[in-house]
Amino acid sequence: MDVTDLRTVFHTQDGVVHAVNGISFHLEEGELLSVVGESGSGKSVTMMSLLKLLPIPPAEIASGTVMFDGKDLLQMELEELREIRGGKIGFIFQDPMTSLNPVFNVGFQIMEPLKEHLGLSKKEARKRAIELLELVGIPGAADRLDDFPHQFSGGMRQRVMIAIALACDPQILIADEPTTALDVTIQAQILELIKDLRKKLGMAIVWITHDLGVAAGISDRIVVMYGGFVVEHAKVDDLYKRPLHPYTRALLATLPSEDGGEERLKSIRGTPPNLGAAPTSCPFAPRCEHAFDRCHKENPALERIEGVHDVACWWDVEKEAPRHAS
Ligand SMILES: Nc1ncnc2c1ncn2[C@@H]1O[C@H](COP(=O)(O)OP(=O)(O)O)[C@@H](O)[C@H]1O
Ligand SMILES: [Mg+2]
């Protein structure tokens, strides 16, 4: 999948909210890409834009292409896009619109996409639903099809969500903070499950999280978002060994230290940017310890530093000097 120059705004009573400001990234077959950033950085809006799951209006996808299998999802007829949603692209979002429906038993909710997208008969769908529940580690799968969502624990409900997302054997799984609401032990179990499923099924995964620590353990590559922009992009090892954006560095500094010494969970100083105006300066500048005059005047574009390492910053944190003569 190739996303290019995606821009999404919301038209609200208080004016235009610039949620996603021209971001690009690509996803290779079978890889795990994490999208990391603080709450409000535009991660969910980006992912929902890809599949046009936002209410339009107030949302408007102002520009961009999302190429998948040779076609632009943003130009596709709604009917064709519906085939892809939950078919070739499975997704787990936090919002209630795409979560389990309390009124139907989970068997029905898993079997529905199987009948709709794959044309399975009721009997075939039932058999596959049991396989899927077993795949995601739900004990006594066959006996649980008739149970309703409230009869499952939080962790088990999330497993059911994953089973639904995987039902049609997708090429891509988009998982938007699927472990955030769960306690730490269950989170770890879901992460293990995802790693395991990826080995077994080989789909590509876009993993959205505000937690760089979680992303570390599972990703091939990481995209760091800030204020609706991609500010850094690198292979996971490079990002940890050689973070180039002051925001990435700040995120890393908020992680508990590895030697288990003093657990430093400080938050990044300052507040996230106001998205009410299209930025004409670096959105991170007001919070950045390295900001100099250029940062307050011009917004740096994402530029390739080496290999697959990109950063959008006027300051070279390694040389401790401006990256370019201005
Ligand atoms: N329906 C909406 N109307 C107006 N603004 C919205 C709406 N949905 C999201 N936003 C704004 O878009 C920005 C990005 O939100 P989001 O993508 O949910 O962030 P993240 O997922 O990174 O926490 C936020 O500032 C949020 O307030
Ligand atoms: Mg979100």
TrEMBL record:
<dbReference type="InterPro" id="IPR017871">
    <property type="entry name" value="ABC_transporter-like_CS"/>
</dbReference>
<protein>
    <submittedName>
        <fullName>ABC transporter ATP-binding protein</fullName>
    </submittedName>
</protein>
<keyword id="KW-1003">Cell membrane</keyword>
<keyword id="KW-0067">ATP-binding</keyword>
<keyword id="KW-0547">Nucleotide-binding</keyword>
<comment type="similarity">
    <text>Belongs to the ABC transporter superfamily.</text>
</comment>
<dbReference type="Pfam" id="PF08352">
    <property type="entry name" value="oligo_HPY"/>
</dbReference>
<dbReference type="GO" id="GO:0005524">
    <property type="term" value="F:ATP binding"/>
</dbReference>
<keyword id="KW-0813">Transport</keyword>
<dbReference type="InterPro" id="IPR013563">
    <property type="entry name" value="Oligopep_ABC_C"/>
</dbReference>
<dbReference type="InterPro" id="IPR027417">
    <property type="entry name" value="P-loop_NTPase"/>
</dbReference>
<dbReference type="Pfam" id="PF00005">
    <property type="entry name" value="ABC_tran"/>
</dbReference>
<keyword id="KW-0472">Membrane</keyword>
<dbReference type="InterPro" id="IPR003439">
    <property type="entry name" value="ABC_transporter-like_ATP-bd"/>
</dbReference>
<feature type="domain" description="ABC transporter">
    <location>
        <begin position="1"/>
        <end position="252"/>
    </location>
</feature>
<dbReference type="InterPro" id="IPR003593">
    <property type="entry name" value="AAA+_ATPase"/>
</dbReference>
<dbReference type="InterPro" id="IPR050388">
    <property type="entry name" value="ABC_Ni/Peptide_Import"/>
</dbReference>
